[in-house]
Specification:
By secondary structure, the protein is of the alpha/beta class. It contains 23 helices and 20 strands. The chain has a six-stranded parallel sheet with strand order 2-1-3-4-6-5, with helices on both faces. It has a six-stranded parallel sheet with strand order 9-8-7-10-11-14, sandwiched between helices. It is globular and about 75 Å long. The N and C termini lie far apart (about 75 Å).
Length: about 550
């Protein structure tokens, strides 16, 4: 009789699925399995201080590596903590597998018992329940197969008493890689390609908007060539930030965070081609960004109606690179080469465009966070990864950063939830392993999960954290002020975040004047610990997006 326990076999199965990193918080229902994972050769186990953070760490790890991120929680209150991070991963289509220890099958009553299935499914994640030892390895394969092919989080629940049973079978597991369909590149219907080319031939002011599908398809060059042939300007969704950086006809972000100049060009557009992008509410500014344009959507899963909007007049089901290459080839065959928006005057105007040049007096002992982000951008090397959480500062960070490829940006705002940026940055930093990660986060967000600063110190994870400290919840108090409402309930005061970081054993510095980042960065590079910069920002300076949307500034 083998002495191998089922939990040991589960650890071997996860290892066979190419898992080399686990983010966990242990409780009764997952502690022995987590320990078995830690004993696997080469396995790295990061012990988080909050279950939601463990899942967000796995989410960040998956965003950076493209692999399946793996996290673990116990049952009951350990599991209910992860609803936000599961929803975030589901909205972002991030492949994550969560090993959730479940209450014992044989128990007549168990304090922490809860039905995990409806909670999981409500977030958009897939649920796999292990109920018999003979099906266990099939269940593991299903979890990883769904995560990989459907690109969404999966919860696999394993009762604690089942985990401790002797393993009755051979100690072999063939992984889901053996059954996952081979990746394919669907090509567009030639008749639809012809229709798109006819629309381009008639357009005078076309714009191409690209999203994450272009990143996944490695289609940047193909899309740029198509836009050049069509005489189109280029733009990207928020999550496609950096796709066309350096291109002289790049308008940058489309939609709610578009510059004033970009918004004017969209208003003039007579054709918009969205490629590898959802064309949802924010990217199209609720459907008002390009009111006079015909719209084409090229996507693997085009949607006629999404987020309450009609997305396009013509939908082409195709991989981004295949679609762009097919259209470019047909344009060249037909000798169709348009000038469109591509003139020296337009290129010069784009080169001189600025996301927010409005001058504000700055309060003593504080910095204008718009100018700080620009200084930070000049200081942080372009080969670093940038992780940005959610909050008022978020639109400033995303519009003022420049010069990095799209794969270097990780925007943790898919569910509109603050507080997940720190944990996701830990996952990205663990994936890189060289400390070249900068988190831009808000003070309110950091305080929600500041306990993970101890996780960073304990595991020796190196990263740089720039915390935009405006003394409150900026997204809320700016909206209060715009509507002449007392903002005091959204103000919590400027705690000494640098001192807090030092209390956790990290390097902490206060930034309350411009020009300090180069020296601080040299100090960070010379240290052997993570650094937290407490950036004291002027709370009287709203972002351009807030001034336009909430304050009514034209």
């Amino acid at each position: 009789m083998s002495k191998l326990l089922t939990l040991d076999m589960l650890a071997r199965a996860f290892e066979a699925e190419s898992v080399d990193t686990l983010f966990t918080l242990m409780g009764d229902a997952n502690m022995y399995w987590s320990t078995a994972m830690a004993e696997r050769p080469g396995m790295k186990v990061i012990h988080a201080r909050h279950e939601s953070c463990a899942v967000s760490m796995a989410d960040g790890y998956a965003r950076k590596t493209g692999k399946v991120g793996v996290a673990s929680t116990t049952c009951g209150p350990g599991f209910t903590q992860i609803m936000t991070s599961l929803s975030m991963a589901a909205r972002a289509r991030i492949p994550v597998v969560v090993f959730a220890g479940d209450s014992p099958i044989a128990a007549s009553w168990y304090l922490q018992e809860i039905d995990m299935a409806p909670l999981t499914r409500a977030t958009g994640a897939h649920y796999v329940a292990v109920r018999h030892i003979d099906r266990l390895l099939d269940n593991v394969r299903e979890a990883f197969q769904v995560a990989r092919t459907e690109r969404r989080p999966v919860v696999i629940s394993v009762p604690m008493d089942l985990q401790k049973q002797p393993w009755p079978h051979l100690a072999d597991h063939f992984p889901s890689d053996d059954i996952v369909p081979v990746a394919q590149r669907p090509w567009p219907d030639p008749d639809l390609v012809e229709r798109v080319c006819d629309m381009i031939a008639e357009a005078e002011r076309p714009i191409v908007v690209a999203g994450r599908g272009v990143i996944a398809s490695k289609a940047v060059d193909a899309v740029a060539e198509m836009a050049e042939q069509a005489g189109a300007l280029l733009a990207n969704s928020l999550l496609g930030k950096g796709l066309f950086d350096g291109n002289p006809y790049n308008l940058e972000i489309a939609g709610a965070f578009a510059s004033d100049y970009a918004r004017e060009r969209f208003a003039e557009a007579d054709l918009v081609i969205g490629i590898g992008v959802g064309l949802g509410h924010y990217t199209t500014e609720g459907g008002y960004l390009y009111p006079g344009a015909q719209v084409v959507q090229i996507d693997l899963h085009p949607k006629g109606l999404w987020q309450g909007l009609r997305t396009a007049d013509l939908h082409v089901c195709a991989d981004a690179r295949a679609g762009a290459e097919a259209i470019t080839a047909r344009l060249r065959e037909g000798s169709i080469k348009r000038t469109g928006f591509r003139t020296p005057e337009i290129a010069a105007a784009i080169a001189n465009d600025h996301p927010d040049a409005k001058a504000y007096p700055v309060q003593p002992g504080m910095v204008d966070q718009r100018r700080f982000i620009e200084e930070l951008d000049r200081t942080i090397p372009k080969d670093w990864d940038i992780v940005v959480g959610g909050g008022h500062y978020f639109s400033i960070a995303m519009t003022h950063l420049r010069g990095r490829p799209a794969a270097r940006y990780h925007v943790i705002n898919d569910f509109g939830a603050i507080g997940s940026g720190l944990a996701a940055a830990i996952g990205v930093a663990q994936a890189r392993g060289d400390g070249k990660v900068c988190l831009i986060e808000g003070d309110g967000s950091l305080m929600m999960h500041c306990q993970e600063l101890e996780t960073i110190q304990r595991h020796g994870i190196r990263l740089l954290m720039a915390i935009m400290n405006d003394g409150g919840y900026g997204a809320e108090f700016h909206k209060f002020r715009a509507n002449d409402v007392d903002d005091s309930n959204a103000i919590h005061g400027r705690g000494d975040i640098a001192a807090m970081a030092r209390g956790f054993g990290l390097a902490g510095a206060t930034v309350n004047q411009m020009g300090a980042t180069e020296q601080l960065f040299r100090e960070h590079e010379g240290a052997n610990v993570a650094s937290v910069w407490d950036v004291v920002v002027d709370d009287r300076i709203p972002s351009r997006a807030y001034r336009r949307i909430h304050y009514g500034e034209a």
